[in-house]
Amino acid sequence: MPAMETALHLVDMARLTRDLAQDAEAYRAARPFPHVVLDDVLHREAFEQAARAFPPIDDEFWKGYLHVNETKYSNTVPDTWAPALQSLAQEFCSAEFVTYLEELTGIERLIPDYTMDGGGLHMTLRGGHLNIHTDFSTHHAHENWARRVNILVYLNEEWHDEWGGKLELWDKEMTACQDTVTPAGNRMLVFTTSEDSFHGHPDGLACPPDQARRSLAMYYFTEEAAPVRRATNYQARPEESRLRKATIAADRTVLDVYDRAKRRLGISDEVAHKVLGAVSKLRKKK
Q1: Model pTM?
Q2: What phi and psi, each to the nearest 5 degrees, are found at residue 171?
Q3: Which residues of the chain fall below pLDDT 50?
Q4: pLDDT tens figures, 96-107
Q5: Whole-angstrom Cα distance, residue 70 to residue 234?
Q6: Residue 119, φ and ψ in degrees, nearest 5
């Protein structure tokens, strides 16, 4: 999918390009894997419009990923989004923004993905979590596309430290969290997707019931001759119990089977949500 020829009005490219040289240097030097956190990415009015346009908690188009390793909701169908959010995603797929990402990350020939394979709008409610993991490595519809870069743009109008939800970045040996990112509004995290880029927010959120952790996730790929397929690789933290570690591993295996089936048989995410929900309910009864 080529980058879109879109005029940028929402993303503050002047602010991003002004600091590009130092941000690129910081990106490549970052630990535990290449990443950078950028604030004020959208023009103020654009951020406010996007935050207001974010679907409410009870929106009919949310699909739940409710199982051991994550309890969050997503909407991967831009046609169901408000115009402000569609326009924002289109700008993140634009040739100008993709060129910026290539210069920031040092990764050439990036391909944006407006189909939102695994990306899109994400929402996590009170008590929700996302265990530490690395992401699936190839596009489900274009298996010669290797996933290379993630951007997470936080669209929370307010967020307090006591609510939790900081994204944890862990070392490749899964021995320690080496950095955290608060999901503050108008903040963007950019990081290189690899088999070692472990991240997540594994503790349940403590936000009020009428609040949610909101973000837009966009993924970028490169075309490769024979990319290695890896499913999402969830990991337990060192301090977790032996039973908890076994449960996380078992759930990871189920998700790997689903990932293979989705690719080979064309199983829809709708079916996946139902299966994962059923498995989660069965485990809660045990």
Answers
A1: 0.92
A2: -70, 165
A3: 283-286
A4: 999 999 999 999
A5: 10
A6: -100, -145
CATH superfamily for domain 13-230: q2cbj1_9rhob like domain (2.60.120.620)
Angle at 26 between CA 20 and CA 30, to 5 degrees: 145
Q: Which tokens in the block code for residue 94?
A: 């634009």
Q: Report pLDDT for 272.
A: 56
